[in-house]
Amino acid sequence: MPEQQQWTIAATEQPPQWFIQAVKQHTPASSGIYAAQLLWQRGIKDDQQLTAFINHKAYQPASPFEFGQEMHLAIARLQQAYNAKEKIAIWGDFDADGITATSVLWDGLGQFFKQNTQLIYYIPNRLKESHGLNDQGIDNLAKQNCKLIVTCDTGSTNIEEIIYAKQLGIDVIVTDHHTLPAERPPVAAIINPRYLPREHQLFHLSGVAVAYKLVEALYQSLPNIAKHPLEDLLDLVAVGLIADLVQLSGDCRYLAQLGIQRLQADFQQPAAARRRPGVGRLLELCQKSGDRPTDISFGLGPRINAVSRIQGDASFCVELLTSRDAKRCNELAEVTELANARRKSLQKDVQAQVAQKLTQLDLSTTSVIVLEDAQWPAGVLGLVAGQIAQQTGRPTILLSTEGSGESGVGSGEEDSAPTPYSLLPTPLARGSARSVNSVDLYQLVKDQAHLLHRFGGHPFAAGLSLLVENIPLFAAAINQQLRQSLGSTTLTPTVQADLTLTVADLGKELFLELKLLEPCGMGNPVPKLLIQNCWFENSWHRNQQDWQGKKVQYIKTEFDIRDDSSRSAFPGIWWGHYKDELPIGRCDCIAELDYNTFKKRYEIRLIAVRPSVNSALNTQNGLNAPRSLTPLILDWRNYPTPHSLLPTPPLLLEDCPTNWDDLRAWLRRCLMISRSKSGLDNQQQLAIAWSKPNLQPPNQIWLTLVGIAKYLSRTNQLVTRVQLLEKIGISDQTLLVGIKALKYLGFTVKRQDRYLQITWHPSDSPENLADAAVARFLAAVREEQFQRQYFAQVPLSTIVAIASSDNYMGTNV
């Protein structure tokens, strides 16, 4: 179950007036105060930094030869291949960064080596191979007489495979940005920004940007040969950079700025005149124009990634991104769109199954979520793991035990050499891991390497595989490790707002001002806006459909948002949610401001929402709230509310329920009372007022029950069921399971009117049956306690939504 989110507001330090004026020069149509505040918060605090951040023309990019001797070695080896007319193979990867990196090398090196004869490319199959080099692929390239492999977005830790290639007479140039090997591999050159100091402007380059720097160095070293300008590659660089979620600072930001400009310029051309018709068609299919970073992160990136997740082989994506044949590109774009539609459906299915499994976990004692299933397709596990990690605030590892053989596992980071599957004693589980809250997930996984078959990744994402029999050991060990490192720190899902605004502030002027921060990404996130004491109107939801009109299983809700700052409403959208999940009455929300290219309107994209702390009182007293929004359910769990302030006393529900049926019974009672009255002022309300449960360990509860049974048997006293429940603190249903367990220990429980009589005689029941009965009782207690914890913090909006969906609240919802 998702936990209650913790909301935080970014620490605000008012920027000096001179800085606000400097920002205003770049956004003359607005005050510049909001952009100035954000830039100041994010460390931009002088004129030179500000100008270089906003205007790429004022930024001085790094030379590709900042990589030092390794870049010189790489260029020397490429020049040798050029002079000797050797055959070169580009070895790519199947995610968006790897595909675009392969495409950059294909187009860039293709200016010096004839494509398809001197220059070929190879991309591993996600479902049959893993990331990185492998011997079978190297054998295939050797048969084609390749003398040089240039990797992109992969290869740094493939030491054994590099040695194997060398034995076959093939040199390797590695371009990568992932984990460094302990020692330099035996390569012709290795270009990896992780060798640079962390503060270097090239340190955060993704795979595609490293590939671009190699091509840039070759352009400088062999001038007057290339027929197409180097800048033609920048649109592909922007797609890979933004899709790979690297920190957009230094050269990463500079390259992304230039690339987005070229992406937009090409899209604005007539379809027949586009330089990249495949990219243009993809943008059309996802109803984007290419002028925003979100067009990549929400549009192009997921579609490119979807191909390998669904089909395994993503090689045709290079043709999609680089071919000038518009007809062929349209065909490939449609195949890509179908793969993305299938990915969305699979992702939703797996997410629902994971959510069900989460109900069996006690999140209060879980630091790392580790779940497995034989039916989960490995291709979407990283996406779902990311969603669950955000919802729960905990690192999440999802494993598939489906099938056999090596396959890619989600993060694009699993580069260590595999053990042949046929040599393994039991099947492998493969999966993906995602982190939150600054927990270094890669280090957590690495510390359990002795239990793993292979793994790889970085602090926020990892891929791994292990023997199925090792999963329980791995889950226990990684949880214990994180608990020890956290100490008293509690993991909770957190969302941070950057600015506090009103509905009146929303619109074109603010959008253009905040656009100064784009492109946004890691280290420079999209501004999150807190809007307080607002409410929603005209909400509706529907299933989204794919481009062919076939239903895709995901939801979006559209709405208008209002507050007291303006008489006008402002439109918004909430992806993946039903309208009934919107709170009734006054609320607070965190959102991002966006421009909808398809509808040609400015709108907010809802990130998080919750009822205002004072919403119950405000709506009841008519303090500027619409009368039609008066809520039926009041949330008094977290703060006391004086009854005298309410026109009609609510029904008080003070006992924490353990299932939805308990709560529905109270809702039906309220509804029946309300229907017997007339007028909204006489509407009967329900106040949920239970306190956070104080739970004892299940073993202690069992010992208490046995102790009471022994005492009652010895003293021959009678007890009521209510007395037992109050003493032990469990529900009727769980008590029944406990009484059955007592019988296996020799206790007899008889009913006498309203009382229970408990006697004891030595039992001849097999010990294993008694143990099993006690285990069932302990499991029932744990499940009940989990439900109590859930209902202690379940959002009011969820209670309202579920009640509404079951028609218990009629037209009042």
If you had to describe this structure to a student in words, what would you say it looks like?
By secondary structure, this protein is an alpha/beta fold. Helices cover 40% and strands 18% of the residues. The strands form six sheets. It has a five-stranded parallel β-sheet with strand order 3-2-4-5-6, with helices on both faces. It has a five-stranded mixed β-sheet with strand order 7-8-9-11-10, with helices on both faces. β14 and β15 form a beta hairpin. α9 (234-243) crosses α12.
Structural class: alpha/beta
Runs in which pLDDT lies below 50 for 5 or more consecutive residues are 404-425, 614-630, 641-645, 805-813
Q: For the terminal residues, how far apart are their CA atoms?
A: 24 Å
- How can the largest sheet be summarized? 5 strands, parallel
Shape: globular
Radius of gyration: 31 Å
The whole-number mean of residue pLDDT values reads 84
Estimated share of beta-strand residues: 15-25%
Helix content: 25-40%
Oligomer class: single chain
**Helix run count:** 25
Looking across the biggest beta sheet, what order are the strands in?
3-2-4-5-6
- Strand element count: 24
Summarize the structure.
The protein has 813 residues and is an alpha/beta fold.
Please name the defining characteristics of this protein.
globular, five-stranded mixed sheet, alpha/beta, 40% helix
Topology of this structure?
Layout: E1 6-9, H1 17-24, H2 33-41, H3 47-54, H4 69-84, E2 87-91, H5 96-109, E3 119-122, H6 135-143, E4 146-151, H7 159-167, E5 171-175, E6 189-191, H8 207-221, H9 234-243, H10 251-267, H11 277-285, H12 293-311, H13 316-322, H14 326-358, E7 369-373, H15 381-392, E8 396-400, E9 428-434, H16 441-446, E10 454-458, E11 461-467, H17 471-486, E12 494-497, E13 499-501, H18 508-514, E14 529-545, E15 551-562, E16 570-575, E17 587-596, E18 601-611, H19 615-620, E19 633-635, E20 651-653, H20 660-675, E21 686-688, H21 698-715, E22 718-720, H22 721-728, H23 732-744, E23 747-752, E24 755-760, H24 767-793, H25 796-805
Parallel strand pairs: 1-12, 2-3, 2-4, 4-5, 5-6, 7-8, 13-14, 16-18, 19-21, 20-21
Antiparallel strand pairs: 8-9, 9-11, 10-11, 14-15, 14-17, 15-16, 17-18, 22-24, 23-24
